[in-house]
Write a structure and sequence with these properties.
Blueprint: H1 3-7, H2 11-22, H3 25-41, H4 52-74, H5 92-110, H6 114-125, H7 130-137, H8 141-165
C-alpha cells in the first residue's frame, strides 16, 4: 500500500465528512491533516487493515466528534449572559437575581440527559438547524425536535418549581 496513491486520494472524502460533522471549513481541514497523520503513523499495520478507506473515515469521524465536543464545551454557555435593558441599568438586587437565575438554569441544563443537553445547546445557543443537529448527532430530525422539546420542558418545569418553592 502506498500513501500517495492509496491514502492521499481520500483527502476530499475525509474533508467532506469532517465538514459535515463540524460545519466549519477550517476545522475540517485541520481534522483531515490530523487524520492523515494518524493513518501515516499506523503504516506498520496497513497490511492488516481490510479497507484503508473505512479505517481512514473512522479516524476522521472520531477526530471530528472530538473536535465538536471540545468546541461545544468552549462555545456559548449561559455564563456571561446579560439581559439588555436600554431603559435603565439593573439595580444590584436585579443583577443578583438575574445572575442567580442564570446559574440555576445552567445547573438544570447540566443535569439533562446528554442527548437533550447537546440538542438544546446546538439549537438554542449555537443556532444550528434541526437538520444539521440531526447529522451531527446521527439522529433523525424528529428525534432532535423531541429531545429539544423535552429539554426545554424539563428546564422550564424545574426552574418554575425552584421559583415557587425556593429550592
Amino acid at each position: 500500500m502506498d500513501f500517495r496513491h492509496d491514502i492521499l486520494p481520500l483527502k476530499d472524502k475525509l474533508y467532506r465528512l469532517a465538514l459535515r460533522i463540524t460545519l466549519n471549513p477550517q476545522e475540517a481541514e485541520d481534522i483531515v491533516q490530523d487524520t492523515l497523520i494518524k493513518v501515516w503513523n499506523k503504516r506498520e499495520s496497513w497490511d492488516e487493515i481490510q479497507s484503508i478507506e473505512a479505517f481512514s473515515m473512522t479516524i476522521c469521524r472520531n477526530i471530528s466528534l472530538d473536535h465538536l465536543k471540545s468546541r461545544e464545551n468552549q462555545n456559548a454557555s449561559l455564563e456571561g449572559l446579560t439581559i439588555e435593558r436600554p431603559d435603565h441599568a439593573l439595580s444590584p438586587l436585579e443583577q443578583t437575581q438575574q445572575n442567580d437565575n442564570i446559574e440555576r438554569i445552567k445547573k438544570i441544563m447540566d443535569s439533562l440527559p446528554e442527548k437533550q443537553r447537546t440538542c438544546m445547546q446546538l439549537r438554542d445557543f449555537e443556532g444550528k438547524a434541526y437538520k444539521d443537529i440531526a447529522e451531527i448527532l446521527s439522529l433523525s430530525e424528529e428525534q432532535v425536535k423531541i429531545n429539544i422539546f423535552r429539554a426545554r420542558k424539563t428546564v422550564k418545569e424545574a426552574f418554575l418549581k425552584q421559583e415557587h418553592f425556593g429550592v
